[in-house]
Write a structure and sequence with these properties.
This protein is α+β, with helices and mostly antiparallel strands. The protein has one domain. It has helices at residues 4-11, 47-52, 98-108, and strands at residues 36-38, 44-46, 66-67. The chain has a three-stranded antiparallel beta sheet. The radius of gyration is 16 Å and the shape is elongated. The structure holds zinc ion (2 copies). One zinc ion binds at residues 39, 41, 43, 58, 60-61, 63.
């Protein structure tokens, strides 16, 4: 049986990707941001855009959002912290134009996320 640290290393390729910005407004969302919201595919937006523009509908997958968990910056366990599993530096931008997203959101927002 591997240690917890070995398990983390093995799983590193599919760790939660901490993306640096909001796809909609491009606001910086550093790892400790409490404004960062993610969908199940890690699409990342600020809380303001999730509420004001997206009405809790991810424009890429149609799912809802949750607050992004904060990764510890201190190694509380060996090899497990922001220092080892670093945030992404690749900024991500919208894949659809804003008018198209507005239509998409109108069609989905009335359905609770658990029924989508
Ligand atoms: Zn935003
Ligand atoms: Zn999504």
């Amino acid at each position: 049986m591997g240690t917890w640290t070995n398990d983390i290393e093995r799983k590193e390729a599919r760790l939660l990707e901490l993306r640096p910005n909001c796809e909609w407004c491009d606001k910086d969302l550093p790892p400790a941001s409490q404004e960062a919201m993610i969908c199940t595919y890690e699409c990342t937006f600020c809380r303001t855009c999730v509420e004001a523009h997206l009405r809790n509908v991810c424009p890429n997958c149609g799912g809802g959002f949750c607050p992004r968990p904060i990764r510890p910056h201190l190694d509380r366990r060996p090899g497990v912290s922001l220092r080892y599993q670093m945030p992404s530096t690749t900024r991500v931008h919208l894949s659809f134009d804003k008018a198209e997203i507005a239509d998409f959101v109108r069609g989905v927002a009335h359905i609770p996320p658990l029924e989508r």
